[in-house]
Each structure stands twice: as structure tokens, then as C-alpha cells.
């Protein structure tokens, strides 16, 4: 087998790594205060590109100093002048980058008088002569000049983990150049990044034409006198010295004298022992997990960490199904599926068992329907540990099985313990408890490379490892919940809510597809009419959906004032067009066109594509572990986002209908729940009095901020302004934000806010206190002890810190409102069951619950739901629930 030599351009890749995750700079900080964004990205490069390669020889070349201290600096003193200094956040990571390289088994090498390119160039030629296949990895296309049949230059793009392979054939195909002509091109164009010029006014296009005809600058200058008289000819003659100087500067040395012989850059392999310590110091949890998973699977040995035993799984078949009945009274159960949508995605297999009795599994999920297994799953006396109980409930419902006896859902517990981590993979979450296993990506691949292994034993072993984690982690997770005072939140709210949500999702909501298509046809007709009006006003046809064409029309041809620019031209965003609407009728028509086109594509066509053929229903998924506030989120599709602002949008709701004849849709929603929670949590007597007296809180606020008498009338504009102030305060709005929302001056906005806090002084005091608490403990809590962690609360970045402070003020309010609606859902579901009603809960839209019920239950249902929701949680102010019903969702509002 041909031996491999790996040469890595350390400086270029380190800079690329830093900027690949630059947007994470203030979030990627170790517990010691070290920025780690470049380290994380560079480590990803080593993991994904280098480690799998297993070269025989390997070196990471670094610049010993600036290029000015090399022969290039002597040749051209301005070489690399003007380069900005490296950011301090990058410099502090640099020593750790070199340590990381060494721990991955690679030699670091630099040599005074040489740039990293020259080290790579020389090693590449030595390696080629010694019979090695040479692989260069760089972020700099200059090194493509080194490509030969034995030397491949891999240039990273989109960060540091995606590469483009440059061979002589590929360079010819892409540039119509040989590798050595890369140097000649630089001779003609110069290099602005290295600050040396080429021929005046010769760019890449001209350079490629010249090289296609003359091959190199020697031949070009041999024939320059034969060229027709032109400005190009004059520039070539005048800049002859610059061209030959540029060629020397661009040429990478391949014959430098290196102090470190080729045979001494042997690849040593990864030093797992010390790499674990390195990762621990940098808080690299995912990287630690990967090492420990490899140890657990026996692929590597030796470590300073505890390695767990490999888990065996017994394949279930007809002759051993009865063994499941002997597993005991506490087991783990897990069904694996392809993808995220448990309503429709295929199931990969399942596993069931415990460490004491062993694990059993199969790729054939229909075995679960057999009496020997079904009886165990449906036995509430056998306690099951699961991961993502809602998914497990619905997957089993698809098989006609009811999951009972579940007390521990690792996903729900993990979510409550840390809402900032949206990685919902079991292997990742287990790392918090120092438990490690192979990730799903390592087993199945990712994206286009996703595939279920043909080896059933490998899949089942992976599932058994998951089940074993579920058994091991339970006590630690419950201990952590108890320490956080979140046991009640878990056992009395989140766990029972999962069952309620599973029932709602599985039930689904009926769609009148004909009605939806009729709405689409009506929208299409209106869109065409507006389209024609736009063309008439424009005086020409153009692509209305093209921001570029629209920008040219509005700002160049029609001469409208430019409000904002983007990197690619004029901004035609909604906020820009709204500012211009009064100046030209065409702008208002464009806004109408966009609004109707979005309704048609997103809500008509989009909803029709997700209606299930079997029951003509939509089965959304409510994400219970996504938001940091505890609010539910709806996906596939998002039914919490059906438009309400316009009549055209509201018409979409007329297609949501009862699933049974002579039934109706019922809606029940909390009125001003967040303001009521605010009054309760802050203890503000003035706001509490308004709610206790049943007064209009927005009208009362209007009287306060506008300085009106207690009994003075409040007009609609005043009330709207007061409403914006009320809800703005809840979200920690600034005078700038309020001014922008209301279209008033900052001075007026500040006066509104100051007056508001005079009227409701305890709200102001509470907000100051909650910010103080957030800074002290790094999190805030809801009434149910749900935590919102605020990692940016101590950030040196003012904007991030300010956002965290606003979040600290809002999260207890919004999160407590989420707690209340969840508690109400559980109690409503219990009440429907206890009253033996046919009515079904279908949707939750933040503060609103949607039901369907037979006509003869409507009165009882509205009274029951109103009473239960009103009393779900006792606050210092009364809750208020409004309910409506009708033939469609539209009518139930």
C-alpha cells in the first residue's frame, strides 16, 4: 500500500477556523475565560479530515514570523504590509491550537526565514521523491501550484471541514491552467492579500487570456513587441520588472533546507489520555463523549476516565418472545425511528430490558403486537424508562399499543435541567452525567449520507446502549431535579402533559380540503389582478419576486428614495416598503401581492401537502423540549402560526372543521394572561387592583401614561398606545424600541415608560431585583421553578448582556404563563375523562385551547373548560377565560 504524507497549512486553517465560528465568539468561552471558537472549529477539522486519514508522515507547518523576515521581505519590502493585526481573541487560542495538533499525533513545525508555504512546498517535493502520496490541506489557493500526479492540494471552503480537491486535471478543468501557471497568473495580477502588485489593470480574466496564448511571462515578454499597440501592451512593458518580481514572490520554495528530516515527522496517532485532559480543561463535552464512546465500544483503550462495558442484545424471535415477560418490574424501552416525524416516519427497531436481565430487541417492530410483548408494554405495573415519551406513545399507537407505566423520560428531565441545550440526542444528553455511547451520526451517518446499516446486530447493539443509558442515568437525573426543586415540575406538569399532547397530536384536526382549495383559487385570482396593476404602474413587466429587479425599478427607474441597502443592492424588505407606501401606489400593491402570495404558498398549498390521506387530518407535532421559556412550539406544520392579522389570513381557519357530523369547534383562551402573571409576580398593588375590580387594564394604563383623570374617557389610539406600553414592559422594551413601535420620539417613549413605572412602582422594583438575581445566579425561574439560564448575562459584549437582562425580566412572566396553560391542559384532559365526555382537545395556540365536541356537549364543555382554566393556578389576581364556538375554527373566535 502506498504510504501517505499529510501536510497542513497551520496558519491559514487556524484563521479560517476562527472566522468559521466567529458568530459564536461570545458563546464559546471555557470556564477559565478562554475563547474557544477557533479551537472547536480546528478540532472539527482534525476529527473529520485528518484523523480518518491515518497518514504515515504528517506535519502542521506554521509561519515562524511575518513574511517580511523571509527572502520575500528582502525582495519586496512592502510584502504583506497593511495586514490588520490578529484579534486578541484569536491570539489567546493560538498556543492551544498547537497543543491540540500535538495531541492528535501531528508534528508542529516552523523554521526561521521560511513561511509555512515553503515548508509545505519542500516537504511535498521530498515526499514525492520518496514515493509517498502527498496530501496538502490548506485554506490558501496559492498552494495549488504544488499539485502533481502524486501531490493533491485540498483547499478548505465554508469553514474548515469541507474541502475542494485540486489535482492537475482539476486545475486545468477549472482555470484552464497547469499548476505552475498559477504562479504565472500571480505574476500578472499580483496579490492584494500579500500586498504586491502585478501588471497595471490586468485582472484574472485578462491574465487567463494572456496565459492561454503565451503560456508564461517569459514567452509573453519574448513576444510583447509583436503585440498590437494598446494600453495593455504599454502596461506590460512599463511593469515588466513588477511582473518578474511578483513571480518570485508567488513561487513557493520546494528546495529549502529543512532542519527536520522527512523521516522524523512520523504520525504518532492520537494521545487519548492527554487529549481527554485537554478537552476537560476547555469544556469540550462533545469531543469528550466521542472518545469515551470509542472506549466503550472497545475501539480504543487507555484513559483517565471510566469505561463502561459493552452491552449485548439478544435478538427476539418466535422461540424466545416469552423471555420478555420475565424481565422484571422495571425496564427500559425504546423504539428507534428514521427522522423526527413520528406520525409518518419508518421505525428502525426496538429494544427492551434492563442491566439485570439483559436486553432484547428486533428490527421487526410488528413483534410488539404479539401478546407476549404487548402485555408487558401495556402493563402499568411494569415501570418503563424511555427517551422522548411522546414519540414512543405515538409510535406505539400506530401499532395499536398503549404504553403504560412510564415514570422516567430522560429527554424531559434533561430539558428541565438545561433548556439552553437544544441537542435532543440521547448520547449528547448523557454526557452531562458522565455516561458515554456512540452517537447516532456515527451509526447512521448524516444528511445525504444517512443510511440504516445492513448489519442488524450493529443497530440493535446501538439501541441496547441507549436502553442501558436510560437505566443508568435515572437516579442521577432525579437527584438533579430534586436539587433544582424541579421534581414537581417534572412529575406533575411535563410528564403528564406529554400524554395529553400525544393524544392531541394523534387525534389531529380535520381539514376541509375543498374549502382550502377554494381559498387558494380566490387568492390566485386576486394575486393576478394585483400583478396586472403592478405592471401597469411600472410601465413594464418584471419579476416581482426578484428583490434585485424590484430594487432597480423602484429606486432607479421610479426614483423613490433609498431607505436601506444590502450587500447585493437595494433592500426591498417589508419595513422598507411600508415606509415608501404613501409615496407610490405601486408599493402598496407590492405589499399586498407579497401578503397574498405568502398566504397561498405557505398556508394553502403548504397545508394541503401535509393532510394525511387516511383521515383528511393534519397531525402537527408539539415540541415540548425546544423553547427556553417552556412554551410549546408546533411544527410539521406550525398550527400556532395560522394568520390572524388580516381577514384574508383569518379565512384560512374556515378550512379547519370538526371531524364528526353535528360537531363544532370550540376555542377557549386566557385573557391578558402575561399581564395577570406580571401583577401576581411583582405584587404591584395598582395593577392588581385593576384586575381585581375587573377594569380594562389597557384603559387604566392609558389614563396613567397620558395623565388623565380616573374616570376620563380613553380613545382607541390611547388604548392601543397603552397596550403597546404594557406588553413592551413585559418584554423589557427600551425607549428606543417603544419609540420605533409607536412611531414617536425617544423622548416621548421615555416619558411613557417613566410615567408607567410611577403608576406601577413595584413592577419597576421587581425588574431591578430580577436583573440582580440573574447576575448573581445566572438564571431566573417561573412560578413552577422552571429555569431559564442566561449564559450571556456577564458578557463583555454590551448588546449580548443587555439582551440577557431583558430576557431575565421577560422569562419568568412568559414562562409562568406557559406553566399555567400546561397545568390547565392536564386538568382539562382529566376533567373530560372524568365527565365521560366525547369532546376532544385538538390544539394549543399559546394562550388558547381548541376543542371539537358534539352539539349537545357544547354548553357543558364551555362551562367546564372555563371553570378548570380559571382555577388551574391560584394567583393574587383572577384569571379570565373567554370561550367561543362555531362550525369552523374561524367561527370559534
Automatic annotation (TrEMBL):
The residue ranges of the 5'-3' exonuclease domain are 3-268
Q: Where is the DNA-directed DNA polymerase family A palm domain?
A: 649-857
- Which terms are listed as keywords in the entry? DNA damage, DNA repair, DNA replication, DNA-binding, DNA-directed DNA polymerase, Exonuclease, Hydrolase, Nuclease, Nucleotidyltransferase, Transferase
Does DNA damage count among this protein's keywords? yes
> Any one Gene Ontology biological process term?
DNA-templated DNA replication
**GO MF annotations, alphabetized:** 3'-5' exonuclease activity; 5'-3' exonuclease activity; DNA binding; DNA-directed DNA polymerase activity
Under SMART domains, the record lists:
35EXOc, 53EXOc, HhH2, POLAc
What Enzyme Commission number(s) apply to this enzyme? 2.7.7.7
Q: Where are the transmembrane segments?
A: none
Stretches assigned to the 3'-5' exonuclease domain: 311-482
Protein family membership: Belongs to the DNA polymerase type-A family.
Please report the name of this protein according to its UniProt entry.
Answer: DNA polymerase I
Q: Which organism is it from?
A: Leuconostoc gelidum subsp. gelidum
- Taxonomic classification: Bacteria, Bacillati, Bacillota, Bacilli, Lactobacillales
Amino acid at each position: 500500500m502506498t504510504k501517505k504524507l499529510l501536510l497542513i497549512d497551520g496558519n491559514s486553517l487556524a484563521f479560517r477556523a476562527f472566522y468559521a465560528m466567529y458568530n459564536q465568539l461570545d458563546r464559546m468561552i471555557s470556564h477559565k475565560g478562554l475563547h474557544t471558537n477557533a479551537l472547536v472549529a480546528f478540532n472539527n477539522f482534525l476529527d473529520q479530515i485528518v484523523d480518518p486519514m491515518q497518514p504515515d508522515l504528517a506535519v502542521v507547518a506554521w509561519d515562524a514570523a511575518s513574511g517580511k523576515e523571509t527572502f520575500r521581505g528582502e525582495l519586496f519590502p512592502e510584502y504583506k504590509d497593511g495586514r490588520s493585526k490578529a484579534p486578541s481573541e484569536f491570539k489567546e487560542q493560538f498556543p492551544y491550537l498547537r497543543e491540540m495538533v500535538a495531541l492528535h499525533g501531528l508534528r508542529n513545525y516552523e523554521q526561521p526565514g521560511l513561511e509555512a508555504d515553503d515548508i509545505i512546498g519542500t516537504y511535498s517535493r521530498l515526499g514525492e521523491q520518496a514515493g509517498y502520496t502527498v496530501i496538502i490541506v490548506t485554506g490558501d489557493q496559492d498552494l495549488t501550484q504544488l499539485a502533481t500526479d502524486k501531490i493533491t492540494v485540498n483547499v478548505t471552503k465554508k469553514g474548515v471541514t469541507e474541502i475542494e480537491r485540486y489535482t492537475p486535471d482539476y486545475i486545468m478543468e477549472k482555470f484552464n491552467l497547469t499548476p505552475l501557471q498559477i504562479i504565472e497568473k500571480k505574476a500578472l495580477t499580483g496579490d492584494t492579500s500579500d500586498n504586491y502588485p502585478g501588471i497595471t489593470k490586468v485582472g484574472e480574466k485578462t491574465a487567463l487570456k494572456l496565459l492561454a496564448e503565451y503560456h508564461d511571462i517569459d514567452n509573453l515578454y519574448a513576444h510583447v513587441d509583436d503585440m498590437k499597440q494598446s494600453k495593455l501592451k504599454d502596461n506590460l512593458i512599463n511593469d515588466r520588472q513588477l511582473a518578474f518580481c511578483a513571480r518570485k514572490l508567488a513561487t513557493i520554495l520546494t528546495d529549502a533546507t529543512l532542519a527536520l528530516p522527512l523521516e522524523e515527522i512520523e504520525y504518532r496517532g492520537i494521545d487519548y489520555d492527554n487529549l481527554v485532559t485537554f478537552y476537560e480543561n476547555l469544556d469540550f463535552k462533545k469531543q469528550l463523549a466521542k472518545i469515551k464512546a470509542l472506549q466503550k465500544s472497545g475501539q480504543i483503550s487507555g484513559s483517565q476516565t471510566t469505561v463502561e462495558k459493552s452491552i449485548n442484545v439478544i435478538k427476539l424471535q418466535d422461540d424466545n418472545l416469552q423471555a420478555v415477560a420475565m424481565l422484571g418490574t422495571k425496564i427500559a424501552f425504546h423504539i428507534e425511528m428514521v427522522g423526527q416525524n413520528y406520525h409518518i416516519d419508518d421505525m428502525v427497531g426496538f429494544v427492551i430490558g434492563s442491566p439485570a436481565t439483559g436486553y432484547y430487541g428486533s428490527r421487526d417492530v410488528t413483534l410488539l403486537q404479539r401478546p407476549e410483548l404487548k402485555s408487558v408494554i401495556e402493563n402499568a405495573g411494569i415501570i418503563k424508562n424511555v427517551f422522548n415519551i411522546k414519540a414512543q406513545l405515538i409510535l406505539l399507537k400506530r401499532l395499536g399499543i398503549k404504553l403504560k407505566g412510564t415514570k422516567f423520560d430522560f429527554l424531559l428531565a434533561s430539558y428541565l435541567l438545561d433548556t439552553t441545550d437544544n441537542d435532543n440526542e440521547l448520547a449528547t444528553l448523557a454526557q452531562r452525567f458522565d455516561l458515554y455511547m456512540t452517537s447516532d451520526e456515527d451509526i447512521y451517518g448524516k444528511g445525504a449520507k444517512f443510511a440504516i446499516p445492513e448489519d442488524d446486530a450493529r443497530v440493535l447493539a446501538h439501541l441496547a446502549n441507549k436502553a442501558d443509558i436510560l437505566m443508568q442515568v435515572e437516579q442521577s437525573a432525579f437527584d438533579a431535579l430534586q436539587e433544582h426543586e424541579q421534581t414537581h415540575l417534572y412529575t406533575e406538569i411535563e410528564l403528564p402533559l406529554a400524554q395529553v399532547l400525544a393524544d392531541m397530536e394523534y387525534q389531529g384536526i380535520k381539514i376541509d380540503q375543498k374549502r382550502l382549495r377554494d381559498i387558494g383559487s380566490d387568492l390566485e385570482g386576486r394575486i393576478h389582478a394585483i400583478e396586472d396593476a403592478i405592471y401597469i404602474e411600472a410601465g413594464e413587466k418584471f419579476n416581482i419576486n426578484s428583490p434585485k429587479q424590484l430594487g432597480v425599478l423602484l429606486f432607479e427607474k421610479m426614483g423613490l428614495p433609498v431607505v436601506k441597502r444590502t450587500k447585493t443592492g437595494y433592500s426591498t424588505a417589508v419595513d422598507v416598503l411600508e415606509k415608501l407606501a404613501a409615496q407610490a401606489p405601486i408599493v402598496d400593491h407590492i405589499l399586498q401581492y407579497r401578503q397574498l402570495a405568502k398566504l397561498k404558498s405557505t398556508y394553502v398549498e403548504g397545508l394541503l401537502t401535509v393532510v394525511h390521506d387516511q383521515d383528511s387530518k393534519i397531525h402537527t407535532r408539539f415540541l415540548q423540549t425546544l423553547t427556553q421559556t417552556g412554551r410549546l412550539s408546533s411544527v410539521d406544520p406550525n398550527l400556532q402560526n395560522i394568520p390572524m392579522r388580516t381577514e384574508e389570513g383569518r379565512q384560512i381557519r374556515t378550512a379547519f372543521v370538526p371531524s364528526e357530523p353535528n360537531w363544532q369547534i370550540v376555542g377557549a383562551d386566557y385573557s391578558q394572561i402575561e399581564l395577570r402573571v406580571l401583577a401576581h409576580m411583582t405584587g404591584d398593588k395598582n395593577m392588581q387592583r385593576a384586575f381585581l375590580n375587573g377594569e380594562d387594564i389597557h384603559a387604566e394604563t392609558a389614563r396613567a401614561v397620558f395623565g388623565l383623570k380616573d374616570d376620563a374617557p380613553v380613545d382607541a389610539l390611547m388604548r392601543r398606545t397603552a397596550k403597546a406600553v404594557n406588553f413592551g414592559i413585559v418584554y423589557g422594551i427600551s425607549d428606543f424600541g417603544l419609540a420605533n413601535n409607536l412611531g414617536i420620539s425617544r423622548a416621548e417613549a421615555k416619558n411613557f415608560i417613566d410615567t408607567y413605572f410611577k403608576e406601577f412602582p413595584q413592577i419597576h422594583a421587581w425588574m431591578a431585583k430580577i436583573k440582580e438575581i440573574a447576575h448573581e445566579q445566572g438564571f431566573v425561574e417561573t412560578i413552577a421553578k422552571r429555569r431559564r439560564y442566561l449564559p450571556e448575562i456577564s458578557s463583555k459584549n454590551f448588546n449580548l448582556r443587555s439582551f440577557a437582562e431583558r430576557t431575565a425580566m421577560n422569562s419568568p412572566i412568559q414562562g409562568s404563563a406557559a406553566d399555567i396553560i400546561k397545568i390547565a391542559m392536564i386538568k382539562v384532559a382529566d376533567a373530560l375523562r372524568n365527565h365521560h365526555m366525547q369532546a376532544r382537545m385538538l390544539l394549543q395556540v399559546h394562550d388558547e385551547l381548541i376543542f371539537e365536541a358534539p352539539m349537545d356537549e357544547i354548553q357543558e364543555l364551555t362551562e367546564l373548560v372555563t371553570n378548570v382554566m380559571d382555577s388551574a393556578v391560584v394567583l393574587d389576581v383572577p384569571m379570565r377565560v373567554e370561550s367561543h364556538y362555531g362550525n369552523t375554527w374561524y367561527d370559534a373566535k
